[in-house]
Here is the input.
Amino acid sequence: MSILETKDVTKRFGGLTAVDSVDFSVNEGELRALIGPNGAGKTTFLAMLSGRLKPTEGEIFFRGEDITNQPPYVISQKGIATTFQITNIFQGLTVYENIWVAANSRKKKLNPFVHFSRLKDVAERTEEILELVRIKDKANEIAANLSHGDQRLLEIAIALATDPQLLLLDEPVAGLSPKETGEMSKVIKDLSKEHTIILVEHDMDVVMNLAETITVFDSGKVIAEGTPKEISEHKEVIRAYLGER
Ligand SMILES: Nc1ncnc2c1ncn2[C@@H]1O[C@H](COP(=O)(O)OP(=O)(O)O)[C@@H](O)[C@H]1O
Ligand SMILES: [Mg+2]
Here is the structure.
């Protein structure tokens, strides 16, 4: 069953068509990778899924519901989480506090009446996420002092605290060391057991290793979709993207 679907989604910036009539569908539980050259429209496409940009044309459906013109906070409440805002991190708080605050604000939205007992839930959820994202050993570190790799993990932890059904990750290993990239890949693999994930990624080793299906963007259009093997042998993809690398 498809959890997210787009119909003819288009985004124009003045005369530039950044995303061009994209029909796209992701099934529940899938880990889908989006690849393509710089400027292909991948980030713009994710920004429309999360409500940060409005499509110029077309529609977006989440679990069959039209969410095309919903603001980001409504889309987040419906269960789509994204990590491209590093501003979500409170630099002066610890890792634990950052996750706790995110989990707590989610709870408040679900239930405006404050019950003392819910604080325990939030603490439990925070502990779970610390383990899932493998940063439990950094729980008491101040966010500002984290390495780049651990900041990226914390962003994902904060996104998870909202209990998303669909997680949008935009280049989570960009700028990470080989060791950090390996750790991030493991975390994404673990998360994919419980969440549907759309992963925009340039690192082809990461993509080939994690994705079940790959969608290839070029100049705003989807030019191919298939298994890692199919994509690595696809002539137009090799010409447009893989060949240049
Ligand atoms: N806010 C914006 N205003 C104008 N042009 C933009 C804006 N955001 C992206 N673009 C342009 O849209 C195209 C797609 O960009 P982007 O979605 O960032 O591609 P990708 O993530 O695949 O590298 C690029 O040509 C980029 O310059
Ligand atoms: Mg991008």
In short: Residues 95-110 form the longest helix (16 residues). The chain has nine helices and ten strands. Residues 13, 16, 18, 36, 38-44 surround adenosine-5'-diphosphate (ligand 1) (CB under 6 Å). The two ends are 35 Å apart (CA to CA).
